[in-house]
Amino acid sequence: MKQLFDVSGKTILITGASRGIGKSLALGFRDAGAKVFGTGTSESSISWMESESIHGRVGDFTKDDVSRDLIGSIKKEHGKLDVLINNAGISSHTPISMMKDDEMNRIIDINFKGVFRMCQAYYKTHKHEGGTIINISSVLGLTGFTLASVYSGTKGAVIQMSKAMVAEWGSKFRINVICPGFIETEMTENMQGKGNLMEEFNSRIPMRRMGKPEELLGAAIFLASDASSYMTASTLVIDGGMTGTV
Ligand SMILES: NC(=O)c1ccc[n+]([C@@H]2O[C@H](COP(=O)([O-])OP(=O)(O)OC[C@H]3O[C@@H](n4cnc5c(N)ncnc54)[C@H](OP(=O)(O)O)[C@@H]3O)[C@@H](O)[C@H]2O)c1
What distances in angstroms separate CA 103 from CA 1, 114, 118, 161, one per listed residue? Predict the structure, then answer.
């Protein structure tokens, strides 16, 4: 009998796999037997991938044509892309009153337009075969948080966009969203190690700690595999209980 959670032999593209959550997912899917492609913004940020049997690709989502090239070339050289994980993203801690257009546009370009264009390119190249998409949003796409106005807006938009895509493509594509809580990566480095700030954050999390990147892997494997075969347009929250409690 085929194992429910089996992802071995699947071809998977993970954006923003050079570090943090994406790197952890890339290594985890590789260990589970998948053929993994991972992106970073430069040759140097993906240079570690080759020795770890991950196919590195450079992709900067501030540039329009990157999505079509990325997915088109993988399909041409390796056949069907089974799973697309849109993980690349940037954060911001700028107060609303100080936010300038340049910064706002950059966050929207990477966190929203980047995800939209990757999904669009995946659909256009795989509309006959179909596929599976996992979009990485955030708990800040579900709740308000100080100093995160544009970031939260893009992450909320990713959740709604994913549902709208299921409404259009649902017979061929499964699209689900993961909303991580606070995870120990470079993105949250400014919080880590600051005693009082960490205590304040941890006191809001029932599990009293931040998550580790590898604690998102189980959910990603579930959503990428046949174990979730009737699941689409759903959002999985992985946050130590933070958004489920007051
Ligand atoms: N960490 C958290 O607490 C947390 C919580 C909720 C949601 N998330 C979400 O999870 C995802 C991963 O976060 P993380 O904490 O792992 O972040 P991270 O450690 O800062 O890594 C960000 C990744 O995105 C890539 N990236 C940055 N700018 C890009 C651009 N212009 N075009 C394409 N890729 C770009 C980076 O590539 P380079 O290495 O080449 O710069 C890197 O691979 C993000 O979408 C984030 O919003 C994180």
Answer: 51, 15, 21, 22
Q: What is the pTM of this model?
A: 0.98
Number of H helices, E strands in the chain: 8, 7
Mutate to test the pocket of ligand 1, among 90, 140, 158 (most ligand atoms within 8 A of CB): 90
Which residue's alpha carbon is nearest to atom 2 within ligand 1?
A: 183
Taking the centre of ligand 1 as the mean of its atom positions, its distance from the CA of residue 214, in whole angstroms, is 15
Per-residue confidence of the chain (246 residues) as pLDDT tens digits? 579 999 999 999 999 999 999 999 999 999 999 999 999 999 999 999 999 999 999 999 998 789 999 999 999 999 999 999 999 999 999 999 999 999 999 999 999 999 999 999 999 999 999 999 999 999 999 999 999 999 999 999 999 999 999 999 999 999 999 999 999 999 999 888 777 878 888 999 999 999 999 999 999 999 999 999 999 999 999 999 999 998
Q: Which domains does the chain have, with CATH numbers?
A: 11-237 (3.40.50.720)
CB of 188 sitting under 6 A from ligand 1? yes
